[in-house]
Specification:
Elements: H1 2-38, E1 47-49, E2 52-54, E3 57-59, E4 68-70, E5 83-90, H2 101-104, H3 116-125, H4 127-140, H5 145-152, H6 161-167, E6 173-182, H7 183-193, E7 199-205, E8 207-209, E9 215-217, H8 235-248, E10 251-260, H9 266-270, E11 277-280, H10 285-297, H11 311-323
Parallel strand pairs: 5-6, 5-10, 6-7, 10-11
Antiparallel strand pairs: 1-4, 2-3, 8-9
Helix pairs in contact: 3-4, 6-11
Length: 342
Amino acid sequence: MHVLQWLIHLHHLSRMGWILLQSTLRTFQRCVSRVGKWHGNPQGGADCCILVASERGVLPPGGARRHHRQVQPASSDMEGARNEKVLLAFDFDHTLIDNNCDTYIYKLAPGGKIPDTLKALYRKDGWTHYMGEVFKYLFENGVTKEDIFKCLCEIQLTNGMEKLFNSLPKGKSECIIISDANSVFIDVILNNFGLKHHFQEVFTNPAKFNEEGCLTIEMYHHQDWCTLSTKNLCKGHILGNYIKAREKDNVAFSNIAYIGDGTNDFCPSLRLQECDLVFPRQGYSLIEYIPKMEAEQNLKIRAPVHPWDMGKEILDQVLLCCDKCGTTQIPVPRLCVPFETS
């Protein structure tokens, strides 16, 4: 009987203590709330852990996890400011590398030659379809993935390119590749030289090895709007889309340098403004194609044209642009679109 009375008495004391604890916590929360409001937080609690009482003890809202209500920092005047850079857009074959990676692997074919019947496909269906048939021909003659990779790793960079990439100011420059090669070849070669991290994007024909081990390739896109470009790759269109995408990331380009060698590099070069730079490689078709297209079709490139042979000649001009980055007016629209119909 005495034990029962003692238990009843203990229950009443425990209940009274619990009520007192709840009352104390409510008072504490009101004080914290007022302090928070004094410091400019209308919700109270400048940076506090809000506690609630439960019959199992003192817990944060939602159970055992703590919830912090933090004051958000005031928006900075610099928030939303554009990040201005110099964009370098590179072709790949005979530009970044001193060879054509597609034709270089011909040496893996029997006798080191591609049959004339295959070469006829290039004239009929275009380069991408032709290279797909070349890859199939190599596979049927026992050429493996490893053979192709080993062959590609023999290709050298164009003189001065490695120094160019290692010398560019990273905060003020950005590099991309726009190439009619393929994703597998470019990836292998960039990795071989440890250069892949220098490029924000690589735009090229997608390729992969199928389950049997044969390399396959697809067109980057199928375009019918640009008469200056092949049906599988309009480099000017790709460049324009990239600039628009970067604008959404709040990145603007005070200068654009296009570096190439072939006639398919004319389209992106034609779209550049007076503040930009075109670098046609000496001894290749683009440097002769530029005055030819101006004379015959009145298609004049607005940007200054700087012939080059080594990476240092490109680097010297680009570094001058980087020094002025953020101090020059960016043209609107950013690119010229003189002939595209869709």
